[in-house]
């Protein structure tokens, strides 16, 4: 398993790692560029030199493209796991950690930022007045994480395309904006091949294990419907998200619906004050789940938060989950 993970991490590493040769971000063009972001045409007058990011997945998208030298800092809580072993450790070492909360107008201005890269519920929020429109009034351009784009189904619903397509769209756009198109294209090709290799070995049809994603919550579980990244991560790994019928991204459901769907496997999202071991103990001891196949057979695995939101860790997460799902016996 460690060899599989090491290979996956190498594949997911920045294009400057694992022996690759790519163009320098310093070669970026200075002319204005127009990108499609969340269904809107957005024009950037210049290549950003002091970008700031919010949250781990968004920050690592920049690191994966080797854009540390174009960053003024990042904001994220310190509950996102051990960052010393990720392929982008050098990025974390080089770029300033602005806040262990979220970006604000104040720390963006203090950083003299010329681009804010964040997402809805990953930094951008209406209640705090921290929005692309508000930043535009300050003369600061922004880019919205595609996984988080509002889709119009409800005021807060997110997701305008499949999560991996969103990952590729953002890498492509960032490549164009920062003048590292070749680097972005190479990374996308590597990710596509890695995922295709997992898909080729995945169980088929009725042999696909059913999977419940457990994020948090005891009274009601917080999970992923069909529009959040775990849906496609589970699917590509060879499983079936038991909450596929829930037309939402990250959302709460009732425990009775988990019991009714009787998942073969539970995936724990590891982050926050309540760690994965505590979450696992709760699941194994919670009486209503006693008869659920995943609990009965102790088929509970852990993925990091950054594996399960849009990030360059998604392909390696698919590889690791796929390797586990292939060990789940059919017919329970």
Automatic annotation (TrEMBL):
UniProt KW keywords: Signal
Keyword Cell membrane: no
Residues in Fe/B12 periplasmic-binding domain copies: 50-332
Signal peptide (residue range): 1-20
Listed SUPFAM superfamilies: Helical backbone' metal receptor
Domain of life: Bacteria
Residue ranges of coiled coil: none
InterPro entries named among the record's database cross-references: ABC_Transporter_SBP (IPR050902), ABC_transptr_periplasmic_BD (IPR002491)
Record carries keyword Ubl conjugation: no
Family: Belongs to the bacterial solute-binding protein 8 family.
Designated name of the protein: ABC transporter substrate-binding protein
Phylogenetic classification of the source organism: Bacteria, Bacillati, Actinomycetota, Actinomycetes, Kitasatosporales
């Amino acid at each position: 398993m460690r060899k599989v993970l090491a290979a996956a991490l190498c594949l997911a590493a920045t294009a400057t790692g694992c022996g690759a040769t790519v163009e320098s971000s310093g070669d970026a063009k200075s002319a204005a560029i127009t990108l499609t972001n969340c269904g809107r045409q957005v024009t950037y007058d210049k290549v950003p030199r002091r970008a700031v990011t919010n949250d781990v997945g968004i920050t690592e998208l920049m690191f994966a493209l080797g854009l540390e030298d174009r960053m003024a800092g990042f904001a994220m809580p310190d509950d996102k796991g051990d960052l010393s072993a990720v392929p982008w450790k050098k990025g974390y070492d080089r770029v300033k950690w602005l806040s262990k909360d979220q970006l604000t107008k104040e720390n963006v201005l203090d950083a003299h930022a010329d681009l804010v890269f964040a997402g809805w519920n990953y930094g951008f929020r209406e209640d705090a007045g921290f929005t692309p429109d508000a930043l535009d009034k300050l003369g600061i351009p922004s880019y919205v994480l595609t996984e988080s784009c509002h889709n119009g189904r409800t005021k807060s619903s997110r997701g305008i395309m499949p999560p991996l397509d969103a990952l590729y769209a953002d890498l492509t756009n960032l490549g164009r904006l920062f003048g590292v198109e070749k680097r972005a294209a190479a990374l996308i090709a590597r990710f596509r091949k890695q995922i295709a290799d997992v898909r080729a070995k995945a169980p088929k049809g009725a042999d696909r294990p059913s999977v419940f994603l457990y994020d948090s919550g005891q009274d009601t579980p917080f999970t992923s419907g069909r529009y959040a990244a775990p849906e496609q991560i589970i699917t590509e790994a060879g499983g079936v998200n038991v909450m596929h019928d829930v037309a939402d991204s990250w959302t709460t459901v009732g425990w009775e619906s988990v019991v009714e769907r009787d998942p073969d496997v539970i995936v724990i999202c590891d982050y926050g004050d309540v760690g994965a071991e505590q979450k696992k103990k709760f699941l194994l001891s919670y009486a209503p789940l006693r008869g659920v196949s995943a609990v009965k057979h102790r088929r509970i695995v852990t993925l990091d938060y950054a594996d399960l939101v849009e990030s360059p860790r998604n392909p390696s997460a698919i590889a690791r989950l796929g390797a586990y799902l292939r060990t789940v016996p059919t017919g329970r």
